[in-house]
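User: Can you predict the 3D structure for this chain?
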Amino acid sequence: IENLDSTLITVQIAKTNPDNTEKQDNKLYKTGEVLTRFAMMLRNINVQYKYSTSMALPSFTPDVSDILGQCTGTSAFAPGLDFAFGMPGERYLSKAIDRGWVITSDSSLVSPSMIVSSKDLMIDATLEPLKGLKITLTAAYSQTTNNQVQFMFAGHPTTRGGSFSMTTIGLSSAMRSVNANNGYQSEVFENFLSFRNVIAARMEGAYMGTKYPSAKFINDKNLNGHNYDPRNGAVNKSSSDVMVPAFIAAYTGRNVDKVELSAFPTLKHLLPNWRITYDGLGKLKKMKEHFKNFTLTHAYSCVYSVGSFTSFLNWVDAGDGFGFVKDEKSGSPMPSSPYDIASVVLTESFAPLIGLDMTLKNSISMRSAYKDSRTVTLNPSSGQIVESSSREITIGAGYTFINLGFGKGGANNPGGFSSDLKLQADFSLRTSTALIRKIEENFTQATSGTKTLSVKVSANYAISRMITLKAFYEHQVNTPLISSTSYPVTDINYGIAVQLNLSKRQ
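Assistant: Here is the predicted structure, written as structure tokens:
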């Protein structure tokens, strides 16, 4: 018995009568099929997070036993269950010192304590919005810290360092060509130069209201407890604190008024890279008459990384991430982050920008690809940006002779042996250049450049189940674009290789 205010409705969508062409060609049905596939395009997603930490504590005095490595001769387990189960840190070091577990009386015999930790996040997702179209997204975030604690000295002086990397997107400045006729002028580099003033002004505004902390070089200037005043020492636009955010904004297309004032972007700025393949064209009726396979590919990757960083020994914390270092010339406190950054790198590649791989019905295979890559390195200490770029076009073709037999009886003789003879030829043309851009001088100089022409031909044939012969010919010509750095070089390699396979076949 159904209630008067309820109704049971069953909706069933089915493709009836497969032979009915009119039904198959129904636009409404096909539209619904496409929309359903698009709504369910996420096929899988994989998220991995790894955290690891290690600690080296020299001159540890208590003995250890075989039971979780613990000594029970003291009032508490030593080195402690937190150490045994992998949870050390600077708090543990303070505990070990307070309980007298380490030697601190003779600094000449004690090495610093090393505390290393790393955080790694990997996200992979596969999308199929259309039949034959596959998109793979990849995002990665990695941060490693390496701290050295001089626990044998008062105050436990600590040197902090590490590395950092994350995937991002730099399409706004990608694939920009330069020309020697205009001095390798670059709009992106000009933006970077102007962005330094914007970032410096933003940092000045952020420091306003901050009070100078207590430190010897600050107390000597009688500034302890006073509000920050740029006349005592302003933000230096040639420092890494200014140049790194300006570099990120210029070369990744971020808004200079909103980009983080840090060399280490947070997780919310993590962006994915991708790889796209599409083989749907090869499944069309007309295409299937001529092709066994017809696949288009595109891939993009971009990684921002901080190669290494170390903390300033004279940096003092002013709270909320702000701090000061001593200006070696004037002795005044200068606004600064805690870290001295040697270099930051943006590595970007289209591998390929567009690629085509196809196999015809007659076993002829052809492929072509266009690749573009660049590496941009900012060196704040030397005041320069190094840009390296490479562009390459590749064309290849191959043919396979199926079951080609030699010797007694040929391929049709059951007593003979036959295999596929695979022929392959590849042609590539690659141009690579390197530029150094002087930041303060606003001057660019080409340091190297090479045009490489390569031709490779090979043939593979198995004369038995254990022996495979390969004949090859390789011809490569390197022509320098800057004659003062190198000279033309031609390499030719050819020969015959024999591969012996001793693995047992099932």
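The longest helix spans residues 187-207. The CA atoms of residues 429 and 437 lie 27 Å apart.
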